[in-house]
Automatic annotation (TrEMBL):
GO molecular function: efflux transmembrane transporter activity
Ranges where the YbhG-like alpha-helical hairpin domain occurs: 145-220
Superkingdom of origin: Bacteria
Name under which the protein is recorded: RND family efflux transporter, MFP subunit
UniProt source species: Sphingopyxis indica
Regions that span the bilayer: 39-57
C-alpha cells in the first residue's frame, strides 16, 4: 500500500515537471513572436522616417528655387498690374435730346350734325376704321323730307305747264297782231304772263334743289379721308345742331407726339429735326420729324412743346404716352465706355496712363450719353491712353502695364 502511494507521488511530480517545461516553451515562443513584431515595426518606422526626410529635403530645395524665382520676378516687375487702356480718338457723336409726351392726332376733325338733324337710323362706321372723303358715317331718317322734296318736284312740273301755256298764248297773240285782232297792250300782258310763268318754274326748281341739298345734309359724312377715332352716337338717337361732336377723326391718319422740352433744349431744336418715337410698352422705333416748335414757354414748368409728326402705326394711340429721342446734330468727340468715366466730389474724371506708365487723373466734361458709350465734351484730345476698367482700384502715381484695346467704331 505504501509502495503504491509512493509510485503515484512520483508520477504526479513527473507530470508537474513536464507541464512546467511545456508552459516555459510556450512563453518563449510568444516572446519570440513579440520580438519579431517589434523588429518589423521598427523597420517600418525607419523607412517612414527616411521617406519623410527625403521629402522634406526635396521641398526645401524647391522652396529655395521658388523663393529665388519670386525674388527675380519681383525684380522683373511681376507685381505691376496689367491694365486695359484705349486710345479713343475723335468720333462722330450724335447729339441726342431725350423727351417724353403724349400722342395725338396731328389734324383732328370733330364731326357733328351739319343739317337740321333727326333720328339716327344707322351708324355705318366703328372707331379704328378708315373712311374716304364724303363717305356717310351715320344715316338720319328722312321720310318727311323726302315727301317734301317730291312735292317740290311736282310743283316744278306745274310751273312748267303754266309757262308752256303762257308761251303758246303769246305766240298766237303775236300771229294775230298783224291782222289787227289783238292790240299791242294785249301782247305786252301775255308776254308778262309768260315771263312770270317761267320765273315760277325757276323758283320751283330752286326750292326743289334746296330741299335736295337739305336732305343731303341730313346724313353725317366724313369731311375728309382719315381714321375714325371715336363714336358718340347710336341708332335711335335724335340728334340736332346742339348734339355736339358725334365722331372724331384723324385726317389722313396722321399722328404726332407732343413732347415737352426744357427751355435750353428748345434752343437746339428746329423744324425738320429728326426724332425717334417709342410708344410706352413697345420696342418700336418710329421715325418722325419736328414740324412745329412752341413759340412760348410755360412760366410754371419752364418747358415748351415740340410737335413731332409721325406716320400712322397701330401702336400709336391718341392720348397714349411715348418717349422720343431728338437728333440735334453731330459733333466730333472722344467716345468712351461708361466704365472708363469716374465721378468724385469735384466732378467727372478719367484715369490715363502717362509718362513712365504711371496713372494720372484727368478731369473731363461729359457730353452726350448714347448706347455706344459716353462722349467727352472737353478734357481729352482723344490721343491719351485711357483706363477702361479697374479705375476704382488705381490711384494717381501707380505704375501699371498698359494693354491697348481698339476703340469702338
Amino acid at each position: 500500500m505504501n509502495y503504491e502511494r509512493k509510485v503515484d507521488s512520483m508520477d504526479s511530480v513527473a507530470g508537474s515537471t513536464q507541464g512546467f517545461y511545456e508552459e516555459a516553451e510556450s512563453y518563449e515562443a510568444a516572446d519570440n513572436r513579440r520580438k519579431r513584431m517589434r523588429l518589423i515595426i521598427g523597420l517600418v518606422l525607419v523607412a517612414l522616417i527616411l521617406a519623410a526626410a527625403w521629402y522634406a529635403f526635396s521641398a526645401a530645395k524647391g522652396g529655395d528655387a521658388a523663393t529665388a524665382g519670386g525674388a527675380a520676378g519681383e525684380e522683373d516687375g511681376a507685381t505691376v498690374p496689367t491694365i486695359t487702356v484705349m486710345i479713343p480718338g475723335q468720333q462722330s457723336v450724335q447729339a441726342a435730346i431725350a423727351a417724353n409726351g403724349t400722342i395725338a392726332a396731328r389734324r383732328e376733325m370733330p364731326v357733328g350734325v351739319a343739317g337740321e338733324g333727326g333720328q339716327v337710323v344707322r351708324v355705318l362706321v366703328e372707331p379704328g376704321q378708315w373712311v374716304g372723303a364724303g363717305q356717310p358715317l351715320a344715316v338720319i331718317d328722312r321720310s318727311v323730307q323726302s315727301q317734301q322734296a317730291a312735292s317740290l318736284a311736282a310743283s316744278i312740273r306745274v310751273a312748267q305747264a303754266d309757262a308752256e301755256l303762257a308761251q303758246s298764248e303769246l305766240d298766237r297773240a303775236q300771229a294775230l297782231v298783224a291782222r289787227g285782232f289783238v292790240s299791242k297792250a294785249d301782247i305786252d300782258r301775255k308776254r308778262a304772263t309768260r315771263d312770270a310763268a317761267q320765273a315760277r318754274v325757276r323758283v320751283a326748281q330752286a326750292q326743289y334743289q334746296e330741299a335736295v341739298a337739305r336732305n343731303g345734309r341730313l346724313n353725317i359724312v366724313a369731311p375728309a379721308a382719315g381714321l375714325v377715332l371715336t363714336r358718340q352716337v347710336e341708332p335711335g338717337q335724335v340728334v340736332g345742331a346742339g348734339s355736339g361732336v358725334l365722331f372724331r377723326m384723324a385726317k389722313g391718319g396722321e399722328m404726332e407726339m407732343l413732347a415737352q422740352l426744357a427751355d435750353a433744349d428748345l434752343q437746339r431744336i428746329s423744324v425738320g429735326t429728326r426724332a425717334i418715337v417709342t410708344p410706352v410698352g413697345t420696342n418700336l422705333e418710329i421715325a418722325g420729324q419736328v414740324w412745329q416748335v412752341s413759340p412760348v414757354i410755360n412760366p410754371d414748368t419752364r418747358q415748351g412743346t415740340v410737335r413731332i409728326a409721325v406716320p400712322y402705326s397701330k401702336a400709336l394711340r391718341p392720348g397714349g404716352f411715348a418717349d422720343a429721342r431728338l437728333i440735334a446734330g453731330a459733333d466730333e468727340a472722344p467716345l468712351l465706355p461708361e466704365s472708363a468715366v469716374q465721378s468724385g466730389p469735384q466732378g467727372n474724371y478719367v484715369l490715363i496712363v502717362g509718362k513712365d506708365d504711371k496713372i494720372e487723373q484727368k478731369p473731363v466734361k461729359v457730353g452726350t450719353v448714347t448706347d455706344d458709350g459716353v462722349s467727352i465734351a472737353s478734357g481729352l484730345t482723344g490721343q491719351e491712353r485711357v483706363v477702361v476698367l479697374a479705375g476704382a482700384f488705381l490711384n494717381p502715381g501707380d505704375k501699371v502695364k498698359p494693354v491697348v484695346q481698339k476703340a469702338s467704331k
